[in-house]
Amino acid sequence: MDYQYPISYEWSTEEMVSVLAFYECIEKAYEKGISRTELMSAYRRLKEIIPGKSDEKNLCDEFEEVSGYSAYRAVKKAKDASEEDWISIKKQG
Which domains does the chain have, with CATH numbers? Predict the structure, then answer.
């Protein structure tokens, strides 16, 4: 990883750790795969911290800009998958 994760300094340390864990789950989905359960758990926690759709989109767009990984694609694939599925995404481009 040679980029910085987008974060807000308004978040508590616990919230920052949770958002960073979500980013790591997105990376796993692209790099080696991740269980749907783990990804959705991290996403639900992200939504507790960032309940607004617009704020979530802005944050995920920033993350995609620096990492090349689409949180939107990973979460959509997880939402469409069955409970026990393994999520693995090929990087576009």
Answer: 13-80 (1.10.220.80)
